[in-house]
Specification:
about 350 residues, mainly alpha, 2 domains, two-stranded antiparallel ribbon, two-stranded antiparallel sheet, 10 helices, about 80% helix
């Protein structure tokens, strides 16, 4: 050894602690990955050995998809029955007859369309009358200064009428837009031809067990491979650390070169990188598996409307409420429009 070079040493106890820190870091990463795996497997009811995962996942997915499609069909039927019972002018005894299943629904939809049309007509009448009244009012003001003095309440009345007309136009636009938005869904619920077309499309879009097996097979195979890779990494680290411990504790001097420790710890750093890479890959694969699970619960997400556009399945949850909303708002606006028409006719005399 040259006089200018000094070799640094560390105690075996210190070296063992440093090595143990690395090993524990690797084990902790593996534990986190294993916990994430178990959580997903339990959520998907895959409690058996890995060779049963594909079979069980496919069977579960197919059953859930069937239940989802049944729920859509049931929602279509239940919403239609409710609309028919409340607004279709069909008595309960006739409603139970299959021959009258769609009669009440079609009656209800027709009445809704008539209500919206009447609302629009009343609004147009009120707006037209208002235009004439404004012209007459302006002419009277210009033609006779004393007219405004003799009719001191008229300006306030005209202001109220203008506010009413503004509200009328605004609410009419809102109702028409709402009806336009929901009308395709109402038609599918209430008209037999489009109702059957939607049911046929829902049935055609089913995903059977074999299809789910094809979709899930590569994902589960990748997941299994990553599990085995983690097991090998942890096993290799265990073997290396056990050998290292035996070697270091045998040192009679109780010390070892610092460079030797750094070299040993460098090997563990490689395993830390590998285990974290496997952990991250597994997280992505688990995300794929959960996405496929969500797909089976929500496929199909749409059904065909009368004009060929797709209607969101989630719309069925709100269809009856929106049917009532359009009906109520139309009838309320008809009353407001008729009151304004009465007031405007009185002003035009």
């Amino acid at each position: 050894m040259s006089s200018g070079t000094r070799t640094s040493f560390v105690g075996v106890r210190y070296a063992l602690d440093k090595m143990q820190d690395k090993v524990l870091g690797i084990q902790d990463a593996d534990t986190d990955a294993e916990k994430a795996l178990v959580d997903v497997l339990l959520r998907l009811s895959l409690a058996g050995p890995e060779e049963t995962w594909l079979r069980d996942f496919s069977a579960r997915s197919s059953a859930l998809n069937k239940e989802h499609r049944h729920t859509i069909k049931q929602a279509l039927n239940d919403t239609g029955m409710l609309i028919s019972f409340l607004y279709g002018n069909i008595v309960v005894e006739r409603l139970r007859s299959m021959a009258n299943v769609f009669t009440g629904r079609q009656n209800a939809l027709k009445q809704l369309e008539l209500a919206v049309a009447e609302m629009s007509q009343c609004c147009r009448t009120a707006v037209s009358l208002h235009s004439r009244v404004e012209v007459m009012y302006a002419a009277r003001i210009r033609g006779c200064f004393t007219f405004a003095q003799q009719n001191v309440m008229l300006p306030r009345t005209m202001d109220n009428v203008r506010l009413g007309i503004h509200k009328l136009r605004s609410e009419e636009a809102t109702i028409l837009a709402l009806f336009e938005r929901w009308k395709p869904c109402f038609i599918v619920i209430c008209q037999k031809t489009y109702h059957r077309q939607a049911l046929d499309a829902i049935h055609a879009n089913k995903i059977d067990q074999d299809t789910f097996a094809e979709l899930a097979g590569p994902i589960l195979a990748n997941l299994t491979s990553l599990c085995h890779a983690r097991e090998r990494l942890v096993s290799e680290v265990g073997s290396i650390s056990a050998t290292q411990v035996k070697d270091w504790v045998k040192r009679s001097t109780g010390v070892l070169r610092k460079t030797e420790l750094e070299e040993a710890l460098g090997k563990y750093d490689v395993y830390v990188e590998k285990i974290n890479l496997a952990k991250n890959k597994q997280a992505r694969v688990l995300a794929e598996l959960l996405a496929l699970d969500r797909r089976c619960k929500r496929s199909p997400t749409t059904f065909p409307g009368p004009d060929g556009t797709e209607i969101q399945v989630d719309d069925l949850r709100s269809a009856f409420r929106q049917f009532e909303n359009v009906r109520f708002c139309s009838m309320r606006l008809i009353k407001l429009a008729n009151k304004l028409i009465k007031d405007l006719r009185a002003l035009s005399l």
